[in-house]
Amino acid sequence: MIKFRHAFLAIAAVLAVHVFAIGTGVYQSMDWFDIPMHFFGGYAIAFLALATYNWIFSQISISTRSTTSSPYARLLLQGVFVMGFVMIVGVAWEWYEFLFDQFATTMVAKYGFAQMGLPDTMDDLLNDTLGAMTAWYLWREKS
């Protein structure tokens, strides 16, 4: 079971690599570096989603109207929760990149644009989702 401690460590690791990559110019010298960063960012945020899901469902119980509920219903709910959670964070990150480019002009002049346009945004969100799906598949509740 994923705990909040694991999630925060994973997120901190991704953010540390991100800060290092910005500071050393890795994003400018290796165009492809953004792809694994979004994949592992989605993976790390999925840890937070799983920890949140586990915490929420340890506090409440959900009963179904039917006595023959599918054993996969809770697994499906967990998957939808994780994907939705990661996508919300991914979209928020893309807004951050857009707003950074609009308002942090001295930083953009020094480090370059964070947002490279719509194809970059779609690729970033796809990689966030693939990272989340991978984390959910490896760390999901086993039914």
Description:
The structure is a single chain. The chain has helices at residues 4-24, 26-29, 34-59, 73-103, 105-111, 118-139. The protein has one domain (4-139). The protein is elongated, with a radius of gyration of 18 Å. With 143 residues, it is mainly α. Helices cover 78% and strands 0% of the residues. The chain has 6 helices and no strands. It starts with a helix and ends with a helix. α3 packs across α6 and α4 (73-103) packs antiparallel against α6 (118-139). The model has no long low-confidence stretch (mean pLDDT 87).
Task: Give the topology.
Layout: H1 4-24, H2 26-29, H3 34-59, H4 73-103, H5 105-111, H6 118-139
β-strand number: 0
Helix content: over 70%
Q: Radius of gyration in whole Å, from Cα? A: 18 Å
Major β-sheet profile:
none
Please describe the structure with a list of short key phrases separated by commas or semicolons.
single chain; mainly alpha; 143 residues
Describe the structure concisely:
By secondary structure, this protein is an all-alpha fold. 78% of the residues lie in helices and 0% in strands.
